[in-house]
Amino acid sequence: MIVNLKKNFLIIGLLTFIGVMLGLYINTYFVHKEIMHMTNTCFENKGVPTVSKGFLSISWSLTCK
Question: Which residues are CB-contacts of 39 (< 8 A; sequence separation ≥ 6)?
Answer without folding.
Answer: 49, 51, 62
